[in-house]
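User: Okay, second chain of the day. Same drill as before: sequence in, structure tokens out.
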Amino acid sequence: MPIGINQLAAAPTPAEELREESSQSNCKDLHLAATGDSRTHVLFMIDELYEMGGAERVLLKMIRLLPRDTFRCSLLTFKVREELKELNDIGCLLWVLPLGKTYDWNALKAARRIRKFIRQQRVSIVHTFFETSDIWGVLVARLSGCPVVVSSRRDLGILRSTKHRIAYKLFRRLYDRVLAVSPQVRDFCIQADGLDPRRVRTLFNGLEMAPIVAASSRQEMRRENAIPEDVPVIIAVANIRRVKGIDVMVRAAGLVCRRYPQALFLVIGRLSEQDYCLELESSIRALGLAGNFRLLGSREDVYSQLKMSDVFCLPSRSEGFSNALLEGMACCLPCVATDVGGNREALEDGHTGFIVPSEDWEEMGRRILALLDNRELAAAMGQRAEAVIAKRFTAEAMMTDLVDIYNGLLQAKGL
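Assistant: Same drill. Structure tokens below.
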């Protein structure tokens, strides 16, 4: 795994680090020397790679699927959890540059190292994710002379502090393009940050269909997990944080289980907020649902778990554009999702599932029951949901749009 956690004090230059780390990498396509490589060099920058959420997965997918004949990639982050399996063989240099404050002496040293890297490695595009990269990283990129700067915006500002809100407005002219994950996020960025609408594009997430097709079938997974065919399974995929609203799903489950006492609710995702997890477990016990809930943690067989389920539930309090919702739809599941972020862009109420108000556990429970009561309706919605993904939200469509955006920006700069 090509990871180098570089200390800022007495550190080697980026070029020296690259030579050292390239010898550790098994990636045959990793060309770190700028000379002799005419491909467009894209430096992706993300605040941290500590848990794999939607943004992290999309970023790694971009790196893996960008055409290798015309693009080469590097990835910079300020914090990493090295045991993440997703970082094995990512196909490019992963440069870990620990960063505390963005305004102290160490930050200045870090900025100088990034500047040297951008210039020596002829970086043509810097593409950022999340606040520190969007603000501090973009400023460094501009001062380093990088021709094109792109920012990906993934949410409705739920992680922004006051200083972030001010900085986004101050630096709004530094971005050649802002890529919003949904029209709702696009509107938010234009209004909150004062961005020129002509510089803001919607780039939907896209799924790779082959792993879904290859996943184990419903029958195989039910046998493996000893779940009878007639047991209703309702599933959510989300790292367990308060913003994901799993507590709302728990209350809805109380309503569902009155009619279907054997119903099973599965939650797949990292236990990210310990206090919230304890609160959920207490609520589950208090409602007498201990036998109906399984908090499964992170799983590698997400698609197989989805395929064995009957209903997908997305109870989030806030979303930009949910990868998990797309995955549920792609696995032919009817979905019940809250009316937040870009959920309506993917899910059509009454056609491919149901949209319910955020926090309304009673309506969520009623809609889940409607699907369990009418299996023909549920099957038809699931089939239509799968067709929507195949038509609009594939990785191929996402990458075609991204490459067009990159090439258009480079051409505009005469590159």
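The domain at 3-206+395-412 is CATH 3.40.50.2000 (Rossmann fold).

User: Thanks, on to the next one.
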